[in-house]
Amino acid sequence: MNPSSQPPTWTKYLLLTAGAYNLVWGTSAILFPAAMLAWLQVDAGSSAQVFWQCIGMLVAVYGCGYLIASWDAYRHWPLIFVGLLGKLLGPIGYLIAYSGGSLPATFGWTILTSDLLWWAPFVVILWGAVRYQHAIGSAYEMPEADDPLRELKTNAGRRLDELANQKPQLVVFLRHAGCTFCREAAKDLSAQRSEIEAAGCGIVLVHVGKEDDPNFFAKYGLEDLPRISDPGCRLYRQFGLDLGSFSQLFGAKVWLRGIMAGIVGGHGIGFPRANSFQMPGIYLYHCGQILDGYQHERASDRPVYLDFVRRNLAPVGVAVAK
């Protein structure tokens, strides 16, 4: 597995700390409910003490979950997710109780140390777990000896090298069909296709769909182009593309472009299909060599395919139509 898909070392120690904290806090609440409530300036009546001991028991159980999750944070992400839910709901409950006069402001100290301080690291761990789930079963956990160029073929049964030996190929790595930017890219390719081919360059589409979807490509007049289905992202990895980070997939600029392309541009906003974390890119490939490539910095990047082809075909002596 790509090291970037594994839980960082700090996640283990953070979850061990969280587990130890919860066990100490919970045990203290069970054994010394009156003392804790008095320190928090909460009425320590008999009913309150019993209730506080029940809370302590739940907190200690959460602690056991964190200790289990510390062995592999990404595989045991449900335990962390449940813990985060509790840490989100706890402050909400406190604010409601405080605004109603049921709890004093001093109770906020336990909300700070037990809930708020853990939000950011838990969210980071869960994001890594989501990314890890998208890497499972893909090329990102395969040996580097994997050779998709020889094994993957187009919908017509031809290898990419066969096409590229005949003439340069613009290899367009798309995202999933539900992606707004994938649809936008298909429309851009359709509009620029005739000039790209007139420049002496073929076009090969690579997508992450498990099966080829001719209807999607027919919508943009691209159904006759050679297409490679690569659900395992093998060819993506071969050409140096990776899974996207949070900012690359969900950053503010991506959201803004998504609204513009989806609503204003009319491409719609679809549901994730296949590996929705895979980043796109374009490459000019000829005779076993990558002449140039463009790796998207964000999923929303919109390269001009014709300009890319013209800029890179001229230096290698391929006739370029003006």
From TrEMBL:
<dbReference type="InterPro" id="IPR000866">
    <property type="entry name" value="AhpC/TSA"/>
</dbReference>
<feature type="transmembrane region" description="Helical">
    <location>
        <begin position="50"/>
        <end position="69"/>
    </location>
</feature>
<dbReference type="InterPro" id="IPR036249">
    <property type="entry name" value="Thioredoxin-like_sf"/>
</dbReference>
<feature type="transmembrane region" description="Helical">
    <location>
        <begin position="116"/>
        <end position="132"/>
    </location>
</feature>
<dbReference type="GO" id="GO:0016491">
    <property type="term" value="F:oxidoreductase activity"/>
</dbReference>
<protein>
    <recommendedName>
        <fullName>Alkyl hydroperoxide reductase subunit C/ Thiol specific antioxidant domain-containing protein</fullName>
    </recommendedName>
</protein>
<keyword id="KW-0472">Membrane</keyword>
<keyword id="KW-0812">Transmembrane</keyword>
<dbReference type="Pfam" id="PF00578">
    <property type="entry name" value="AhpC-TSA"/>
</dbReference>
<feature type="transmembrane region" description="Helical">
    <location>
        <begin position="12"/>
        <end position="38"/>
    </location>
</feature>
<feature type="domain" description="Alkyl hydroperoxide reductase subunit C/ Thiol specific antioxidant">
    <location>
        <begin position="159"/>
        <end position="241"/>
    </location>
</feature>
<dbReference type="GO" id="GO:0016209">
    <property type="term" value="F:antioxidant activity"/>
</dbReference>
<keyword id="KW-1133">Transmembrane helix</keyword>
<feature type="transmembrane region" description="Helical">
    <location>
        <begin position="76"/>
        <end position="96"/>
    </location>
</feature>
